Automatic annotation (TrEMBL):
The keyword Ubl conjugation does not apply. Keywords: Signal. Residues 97-290 form the Metallo-beta-lactamase domain. Residues 61-82 are annotated as: Disordered. Residues 1-32 form the signal peptide. PROSITE patterns: PROKAR_LIPOPROTEIN (PS51257). This is Metallo-beta-lactamase domain-containing protein.
Amino acid sequence: MTGWKSHFLKKLLLFTVLLASLALGGCSSAEAQKYIESAADQAASAAWDYAKEAVKGQLNDLGNSMGNGGSTGSSQNTSDVTPSTGTLKVHFIDVGQGDSILIQDGSHSMLIDAGENNQGKTVTAYLNRQGISSLDYVIGTHPHSDHIGGLDDVLRSFEVKNVILPPVEHTTATFEDVLDAVADKGLTITKPVPGDTYELGQSHFTILGPAGNYGDELNDWSVGIRLTDGNHSFVMCGDAEQEAEQDMVNSGLTLSADVLKAGHHGSRTSSSPDFLKAVSPSWAVISCGKGNSYGHPHKETLEKYSKAGIQVLRTDELGTIIASSSPEALSWSHADASGKEKPIDLAQ
Ligand SMILES: [Zn+2]
């Protein structure tokens, strides 16, 4: 077992014991003792991956049995939600070729991805400028460096309450940096389960993916969410490609949204017809770098959007793009590197 794995496992076990001890108040002591014993037994005897799953499963069971503060999923129906009276802001931070999305609802905030390794400072500086000291959720969509490269900087710079990462077997050095940061902060990883819903202020988000097993296809493992404040909604699925998109369509979960974060930087491998039809957005935000070597966004994707009457906003053209949802409207602004916000003239 390598250093980070055993370190991480120890942290997980400690956390399990702590939670189980806390449970003594709410559950019978015999039950709590059983959790401690079986977690320790399984973790000690099993391989890392198995142990991680086992401990995590027990944490979830324990959380559910205690009605644990909303951090475990529920199958809340989006139509039951009372529309927010405040403002939900979604910032598509310009990190060049990559993704980084900050979501704020009142004093609550979350971050999806943090661009390449060299963008960690850009993202932390942006979050600092927004006055953020704590993140309710951090999602690393998948192990590619243009998404999770800067995430270790974020995890080390802010108080983070929940980390959501896909359950991929394959890892990269960059991904291990993130896991190290998670372990060093004593955090545990929440596994994304399609249909699970989490609260963020007056908004909430539902996990859409990964909704299948994608082997080495890391893009398809992307954690996808649908975020809504009851007034407007956003679908953001990292670099999920056609197969993963189809699985999300087949899942029967609500996909319709006002805004789609274009999958895989506007690549032709994503925004497949069925998925686009199910989301049926008015706007698509493409996060990509100026003159990137992949040719993102691809012409075919832009044509599909244009044909469907979807208005496109691109970080390579506008810098950071900010959507503000209020009960009255969804308004758009953008910011250059200095952070100065200006409204986007959508008539252009
Ligand atoms: Zn990417």
